[in-house]
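quick one, 144 residues, struct below
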Amino acid sequence: MTLAAILKHKGHDVSVVAPGASIAEVVTVLSNRHIGAVLVRDGADAPLGILSERDIVASLAANGARTLEMTAGQLMTRAVKTALLRTSVGEAMSIMTTGRFRHLPVMDRGELVGLVSIGDVVKAKIMEQEHEVTELRAYVAGAA
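---
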């Protein structure tokens, strides 16, 4: 299974904020959309960064309430790893685990086409394994 299959089921909608958006605005977006991260980008360009709940919590611990006056551009993670539609679920899981992050932008021909979370990837991996178990059971039952 690839990330294309996940996005086919999940959809291609990505929540995006401008680098100048306040953290208070970002928190509202995260809360209203029930998501854990937003992509930071300026116009139609490639992602400038990604800003997650973890980034905000870390800043709250370091800076207190001043965090809410900061901007997405100040807190975002700039070195954004991306994947392709053809990236396998296993590869995506490996990228996210090794990099210790929970959200992975998906690109196609240089264009952003979606964002997957570790939850999306784990769910897909479980579905793959359940399918394999079902196939094996059917094979064994047919061979008996």
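Helices lie at 3-10, 23-33, 53-63, 72-75, 89-99, 118-143.
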